[in-house]
Q: What sequence folds into this?
């Protein structure tokens, strides 16, 4: 299973094996990583699973679908490397992906 | 004081259908919701998105589902209290006393919390130092647009609220529109109108930048916005409006002495009662083994919670199970003519 690294705002880092096919959001929620709220449950209807993706990974991720950028308008401190973690599906290609969690969601 | 058998918190699909179930078994209820309209997440987050997993409804939008539920509960003349958030609960003898942020009071024998992920509230700017200006020069909604006449108003956001207010206020104010990226996500007609007003020098637009800081002593006189490339631009302004949509917050629910598991309330699956006698939780906010956050689960939970309320509302009567197809009493309650 690919290893995904989640870095909390405090700097605390968690490296976790997440099964292929789950989203990066689900990987966090199932492993009780704090800071990813996912209020809408992955429906791209809120922006509370917002993460910053480490620069070198930006181009390797599946492209944003319609609507993700719109929801990111509502995220807490969106940046160039912002993504909604519910929209990133884990696959072998994402082995080593690192995402940082914002200070808060919303 | 509003007296009712049951107070439902939340006017989403789960709360609405639960009101129907209460009506069928002869209990009355009133519903409080912090949004300005009925429908909860269905109407606020995805009114136009099709839903495919409502039993016996192959496809409907959030708005259609809401309208159908409103139609279904019409026979019961349910009273809604919108734009209000329940703040306090107190148990006095066998009744719950409930108070909202607007001061409305209720006396009910049970409370059903169908609050989803909490009440919708505006998302705010992320800068801590500006809190003291919120509600004065920094606003997230508009109550009286006259205060902006002949003033400079800087609007942040890229959706319909930001665009609509930019267009509207440009008639009487100097409007500056700021958005974090070049694309606006509102209706095309509004985007075209804003661009046209920009050509006519009636609206100034800055994109790829966000609020960085505010300047002024007691009052804000100007703000700095920071571009993606770190450049700073100063903008003189009298008011700052932020339209970043709504976020859901549990709010006062956390202070009522209910057991909580993250943002959910554990319940039993017999009648969806919480650890507090007479307080039930249904829909996305409740938690039990196997819980699915589906609208159809909320309907089931509401049907059982409604029956759970019966013994508190009518302690001297015995609840009798009846079908809508055959019971005269139930048909009478529905106003059905035989």
A:
């Amino acid at each position: 299973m690919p290893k995904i690294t989640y870095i909390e705002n405090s700097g605390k880092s968690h490296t976790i094996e997440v099964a292929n096919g789950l989203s990066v959001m689900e990987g966090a929620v199932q492993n009780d990583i704090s800071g990813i709220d996912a209020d809408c449950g992955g429906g791209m209807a809120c922006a509370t699973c917002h993460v910053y993706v480490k620069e070198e990974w930006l181009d390797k991720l599946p492209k944003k679908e319609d609507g993700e950028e719109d929801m990111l308008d509502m995220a807490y401190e969106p940046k160039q490397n912002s993504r909604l973690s519910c929209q990133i599906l884990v696959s072998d290609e994402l082995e080593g992906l690192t995402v940082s969690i914002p200070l808060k969601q919303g | 004081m509003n007296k009712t058998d049951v107070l439902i918190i939340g006017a989403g699909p789960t709360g609405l259908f639960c009101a129907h179930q209460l009506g069928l078994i002869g209990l009355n209820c009133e519903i409080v919701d912090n949004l300005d309209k009925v429908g909860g997440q269905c109407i606020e987050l995805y009114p136009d998105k099709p839903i495919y997993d409502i039993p016996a409804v192959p496809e409907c939008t959030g708005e259609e589902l809401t309208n159908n539920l409103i139609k279904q509960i019409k026979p019961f003349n349910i009273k809604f209290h919108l734009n209000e958030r329940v703040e306090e609960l107190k148990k006095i003898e066998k009744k719950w006393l409930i108070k909202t942020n607007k001061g409305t009071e209720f006396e009910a024998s049970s409370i059903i919390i169908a609050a989803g992920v909490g009440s919708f509230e505006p998302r705010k700017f992320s800068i801590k130092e500006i809190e003291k200006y919120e509600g004065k020069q920094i606003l997230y909604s508009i109550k009286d647009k006259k205060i902006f006449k002949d003033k400079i108003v800087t609007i942040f956001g890229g959706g319909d609220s930001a665009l609509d207010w930019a267009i509207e206020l440009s008639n009487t104010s100097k409007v500056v529109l700021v958005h974090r990226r070049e694309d606006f996500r509102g209706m095309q007609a509004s985007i075209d109108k804003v661009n046209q007003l920009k050509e006519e020098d009636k609206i100034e637009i800055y994109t790829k930048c966000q609020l960085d800081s505010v300047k002024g002593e007691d009052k804000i006189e100007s703000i700095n916005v920071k571009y993606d490339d770190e450049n700073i631009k100063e903008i003189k302004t009298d008011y700052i409006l932020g339209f970043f949509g709504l976020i859901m917050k549990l709010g006062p629910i956390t202070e009522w002495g209910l057991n909580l598991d993250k943002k959910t309330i554990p319940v039993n699956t017999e009648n969806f009662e919480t650890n507090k006698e007479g307080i039930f939780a249904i829909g996305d906010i409740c938690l039990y083994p196997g819980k699915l956050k589906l609208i159809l689960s909320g309907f089931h939970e509401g049907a059982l919670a409604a029956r759970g309320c019966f013994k508190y509302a009518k302690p001297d009567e015995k609840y009798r199970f009846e079908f809508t197809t055959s019971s005269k009493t139930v048909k009478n309650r529905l106003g059905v003519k035989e």
The radius of gyration of chain B is 24 Å. The longest strand of chain B covers residues 105-113. Chain B has two domains: 2-121+247-334, 124-244. Residues 124-244 of chain B form a domain with the FAD/NAD(P)-binding domain fold (CATH 3.50.50.60).
